[in-house]
Amino acid sequence: MSVQNAGTAIRKARLAAGLTQEKLSEGVCSVLSLSRIENSSAGVSPATFQALMAGAGAPTEAFPAFANRADFDCF
Questions:
Q1: Range in 2-6, 8-12, 43-47, 71-75 the model is least confident about
Q2: What residues have CB less than 8 Å from 5, skipping those under 6 apart?
Q3: Rg (CA), the chain
Q4: Distance between CA 58 and CA 47 in Å, rounded?
Q5: pLDDT per position as a tens digit, 17-75
Q6: Angle at which helices 46-55 and 6-17 cross, to 10°
Q7: Closest-CA residue to 34 (of 66, 56, 1)
Q8: DSSP symbols for 2-66
């Protein structure tokens, strides 16, 4: 099992759902923000990640959430 960054997971879910960045970002974030998230030039909050994945109809149970960097580093 490999570690996948959030932007890659969102992009894969969006493409699998047949959605454009414009459609997926509606009501969640700007298209520019989504583009930056997918290209890993910007981070994504847990709430925005959940909203984007839900908008793409993708489950999020397989993606752990960390309160801070120290928790992540322990993982």
A1: 71-75
A2: 40
A3: 12
A4: 14
A5: 999 999 999 999 999 999 999 998 998 988 899 999 999 999 887 666 666 666 655 54
A6: 20
A7: 56
A8: ----HHHHHHHHHHHHT--HHHHHTTTS-HHHHHHHHTTSS---HHHHHHHHHHTT---TTS---
